[in-house]
Description:
It contains eleven helices and ten strands. The chain has about 350 residues and is α/β, with parallel strands linked by helices. The N and C termini lie far apart (about 40 Å). The protein has one domain (about 30-345): Alpha-Beta Barrel (TIM Barrel), CATH 3.20.20.330. The site of zinc ion has 5 residues, from loops.
Amino acid sequence: MERHNMAPPGIGSSTERHLDIHNTRNSQNIIVLDGGFATQLSCYVDEPIDGDVLWSARFLSTNPEAVIDSHLDFLRAGADLIITNTYQADVDLFVKHLNVTKEEAYNLIKKAVELAKIAVERYMQEFPNARRPLVVGSVGPYGASLHDGSEYTGSYAANTSLDVMREWHTPRINALLEGGADLLALETIPCRAEAEMLVTLLKEKYPETKAWLSFTAGQDGKTTAYGEPFQEAARACYDICPDQLVAIGVNCIAPRLVESLISGINDKRANPIPLIVYPNSGESYNVELGDDTASYRWINRDKCEPVECYVAKWLDLGVTFVGGCCRTYAIDVTRIKREVEKWKQDHRF
Ligand SMILES: [Zn+2]
C-alpha cells in the first residue's frame, strides 16, 4: 500500500538486524517502545474501552483484527517492540465476563502473543530490511483485577499477601511465555512488595526469561504510587535479579514527574540500572465526570507538554528505553522516535 512505502523513522539508518536489549548502557543503543495500547485501539473500535471490566483485553476475543492493526500502527510509527494486550488479562476474569472455560481463557492470553506476532510478521513483510521488533508480554499489577482503583495507589499491598499475588500472577506469565513472548513487562506496579515478589519469582521460576520492571509513582516525583521511596525500591529490585532485568523505571505517570524520580538513581552504583520511561500524556483521569465508560473523563490535555518534549532530557539522564503509555497514540511514538534519532545524531562521538 502506497502510504506505507516510507520507512518508519530510524529504520533506514539501522545496520543491525537484531535488537540488542541487553546492552543499552551503550548510549547509542536506545530502544523505543510503543504507546498506549487501549488508546490506539480506540481508533478501531466503537465500543467504549475505558471503564470496561476487562479493559482492552476484551477485544482479544471480540475483535482480534483491531488488536493486530493497533500493534501494526505502533510498528509503522517506529516502535522497536510492542507490548501485548494483556495488562488486564486474567483467567478468572475472562471466565466470568467472556463466558469461556478456564482453558479457553488461558489460551486467550496466549492468543494475545500470537496477535502481536502476526503484527510483527506483517510489518516484516512491509519492511523486509527492518530490525525484527520484539513482542513483550504485559504483566499488569494485581490491583488491576480488583476494579476499585487500588491499582493506582497500591493500597491493596496493605491487606494482600504475597502468596495471593504470586498465585494470581503465575498463570498469565506462564501463558505469555508459552505463547512465545520475547520478554516480559512487569509494568505499572504501584508498590515495592509486589515488585520484589515479581522479580524474585522471575529469578526462581523463570531463570531463562528477561523482563523489565516499571513502577507507577506518586505525585511528589519521589515515591512509588504506594508512597515508598522510588529509588530505594528500584535499586533493591535490580539487585535481586540484575542478569534478567533489562531495565527498571516508571510508566503511566505524568511526564513532568519523571526527572526527579530518576535523577541520580545510579550515583555511586558500581552496577548501574538501565532505565526505562514510558509515561502517559499527562492528562488527568477524572472519575467524577460522566459515566463509567466516558472517554471525556480524560481532561487537561491542552495543559500538558507532549511527551516528546522531555525525551532528550531523559536520555541525558541515562534512560535507554523510552515510549508512551495511556493517551499516547502511534503518532506520539513517531515523535518520540524522531527525538531519539536527533539525540543520537547530537551525541555521536
Ligand atoms: Zn498507562
